[in-house]
Design goal:
heterodimer, A: 161 residues, alpha+beta, five-stranded antiparallel sheet, B: 281 residues, nine-stranded antiparallel sheet, disordered N terminus
Chain lengths: 161, 281
Amino acid sequence: MHGNARPLSLGDPMEPFSHGTATLHAFPMLGRTESPLDGWRAAYERLQQIANLPDGWDGENGAAPEGHTVIFVAQEIASLQADGLPAPTLNPSADGAIYAEWHMHGFDIEVIFDAPYEITALIEDAREEISRFEDRDPMMEEARKALLALAGREQTGRPVR
Amino acid sequence: MNEPDMNPELSLPSFTRPPLQEVAAGVQFAPLGVKSVDVAALHTLLAEEYPNWVDAPPLPPSFETFGTVPVGTFPVPPMLLSGTPPWLPRAWFISADDEHIVQAQPDRLIVNWRRQPQGGHYPRYAEVRRRFRAAHDAVERLADKRGLSRPLANQCDLSYFNVVRVPEGADWPDMDRLLRGMRLNPGPGWQASLSDAQVSIRKVLRHERDVPFARLSVDCLPVLDFARNKSWALNIVVRGQPQSGSFDSVLAFLDAAHLEIVSCFAAITTEAMHMEWEKQT
């Protein structure tokens, strides 16, 4: 289903962040040197922007994401935030899917949300401490494991490849 | 499992006078492309059992997730819904005796039983299930007639709302009178004259392969009953993803949730309360 449907950049300026921020303060700070709130704030802004996309948003036949998919992504990333994990970069895809990506600390993690619980995870670790994974991950169990490892590297401050 | 002949009540704890105030069985599905005229057509199909109709605000979509820290029901920022078409109201089709309700909106179907202030008899899970099935059949018939796709479930929930009057000589903080072992026993140096207390318990339910699919939530909190007596609300809810989008999977989910809720209720409540509720098995 993902074939040619790679995520595309919206390229538009972010709209003002206007919804409640209570959840942004509901997770432990983990002693980071820079606030993770900025990353989460950007992620929610981005999701809001994606939620408002019309059909044909890419100038061609790009499908607007389904409302249930957007809400599901919102709830999944709220869960990641509550677990103190780093914020993803979010992008829409022309087939209506939403991509969440993390490219840091030697990890390349992509989580593709096609619909609620229809999730594919692509995980690569340049250090090969986490096995490569590319398959369905409906409850995000594999993605969470990799993100925990990523967060661990972030905390220990090991050199980044 | 098209027509299960099992009795889901068999071998489960049973009470002659359970403290139930409300039971709700619900399913959320990919939105159907219905219009307000279709809601009227659905009421026509259900009007014999539910002659009355009122509108309520629609419920936002909600999904259970399974991180380490439960986030509960994440409040959906209204902005995230702004790109979707205007939502129809949530229709409440209500039975003549006011005890049974079918709630319908383009992505949700819920069947409720509720106790009336003057009392009433809980008709048991099998009857709630029968009504849920009948309401879902009506939605499917309507979808077929309108040429719409049938409901494809992505979330289910079963909720039991109990109200238990605080016993004579006890107060809201004395939850150990209702829940086993829930007694605050502070050490010396602090006078624990509490005004009230609340308890929340969560349990993730897993498939045989250890994959999470649902969460059971128990909340006990202080409330006043219909007669304004101090009482505890004991709410037990199972919410999660059915194994597939089919209606058979929805029913299987609800049956498993029923088993979990009734077992939990009997296990966490005290023997004294069981006597009051006349436990049978």
